[in-house]
Structure formats: C-alpha cells, structure tokens
Amino acid sequence: MSDEPLTPPTNLPTEVVNALNELSPTHLRDVARYAEELAEHKEREARPEEEPPEEELEEQPDDLPDDVPRKATITIKEINDNRYYYWQWREGDKIKSKYKGPVNPDE
C-alpha cells in the first residue's frame, strides 16, 4: 500500500468521507461489512418479485403436504446427475424447500 492519501469516490458525499476519515481501522471494517449487507438488503427490497428458477414447473399442484403453503411450487433440482422434485416457497427473504420425490425419467 502506498503512503499517499486515498482519493474517495467523487459521488460520495463530503460529510460521509469526513466521518469515515475519523474512524479507526476496526470501525472502518465494521462499516464496510455493514454497508455491503445494507446494499444487498436494499437491492433485494427494490427488486420486484424475484423470478422463479429456470427449472421451476408452471403448474400449481393440488397435492400439497400439510406443512407446505399453497403458494409453493414444484422445482426440479439436479444432484449428482439425478433429478428430484422439491416443493419450494418464499418466507420473507428466505427460500424454503421440501423434498417431494425423484423425477421419473419416463414422464
């Protein structure tokens, strides 16, 4: 690293640059982690309903287990060259899955 002063991004407000310049290295690392997490959170919130995975089937199944919500869809996941059906749904920021069974290659 050079001993020359760093040049902050031109689009960063001056008050933010001044506040950052007063922080210790430990606090700067904490701010960096928080800023990255905050940016990801805001990007997720700004996205319209997240697009379903490519392999998701379009039909709404009628044989949902009791612990799977109505909004769940069936997806196909490939694991070790084998294909399996999974129920999949969103709960807040998380995507939940429940195993349904193997994909029948004869279908």
TrEMBL record:
Residues 38-50 have a biased composition (Basic and acidic residues). Residues 38-72 are annotated as: Disordered. Residues 55-106 form the DUF6788 domain. Residues 51-66 have a biased composition (Acidic residues). It holds the Pfam family DUF6788. InterPro entries: DUF6788 (IPR046738). It comes from the Archaea. This is DUF6788 domain-containing protein. It comes from Haloferax gibbonsii (strain ATCC 33959 / DSM 4427 / JCM 8863 / NBRC 102184 / NCIMB 2188 / Ma 2.38).
